[in-house]
Amino acid sequence: MSRFAIGVDLGGTNLRAAAVDSDGRILEKHVSPLRNCDGRDAVIDALCSAVKQLLSSQQTAGDCAGVGVGVPGIIYLETGLLRHSPNLPGWENFPVRDAIEQSLGIPVRLDNDANLAVLGEHWRGAGADVDSLCMITLGTGVGGGLIFNGTIWHGFLGMAGELGHIHVAENNVTCGCGSTGCLETEASATAIVRNVRRAIGQDSAVDSSSVAGHARATSLRDAIAGGESLSARLVHRHAAAGDPLSMEIFQSVGRYLGIAVAGLVNVLNLPLYVIAGGVSEAWDLFSPSLLEELERRSYIFAEGRTRVEKTRLDGAAGLLGAARLAFRH
Known about the structure:
It is a single chain. By secondary structure, the chain is of the alpha/beta class. Helices cover 38% and strands 21% of the residues. The strands form three sheets. It has a five-stranded mixed beta sheet. The protein has a five-stranded mixed beta sheet with strand order 10-9-8-11-12, covered by helices on one side. Strands 5-6 form a two-stranded antiparallel ribbon. Mean pLDDT is 90; it is low at 203-217.
């Protein structure tokens, strides 16, 4: 009988779950926003409900190999405790794995969401032809993951891969981690929205050197004034249409990514660095400035054999990695 696994990707704003077969094909997917979930118990209930629905509908697909869950933040893998998550306030020291297992009644494997995204990319994406790679995920926040010789690198305490908290900017924007100037403050979807507000004068309390002083009227400005909800996706749409402010915002994203990736290339010397997450959909807009900055800052990259690519999995990396985790155990 064939086998499948359930992969769950718990983000800062959305919950995604999927039934995945042993060849990495998604059999069924569930996506739901978390904006209506009031507190962590409601989020856990929504997560378990999605898993139960998938288990029920996939009964004829064969045996379930298990459930893998990706959660943003620092996780103690042995205990399944979420130590800290900048994008899940109120979840500090929360026993996530126990809460899910108690509801489902089956064993659950847990890891950082970005770790599972890089695992998925290594299984069925751009990293399928290499033994080692690094991934940076650009979503509500910025995460990261490392594969060394085919295995997730967790580090001494399981806290490796917090690439969103590399210092890249001299700004006064406080990151969710408590520091300032992190990559997350300049290259996340949250940062894109904040920097647009700063640029058009809606948020005078925030200073961002990448867009400060930008005062010219734009179609993005007009769209916001006309009542459209400001989001990274809206900025992307206007940048793709040639709006100057929107294009400048994504050029800034690329520059700061270039600073971060150059440091990683110089330290790690891996063959592949993958950019993933929702913001990566704007790859064509920010990659020129990313690669220009990278070329200038890393002689290793300038040598010509290091690859920096967009994910090939179009948002499915975390789901596939979570399922892969379940299959491996």
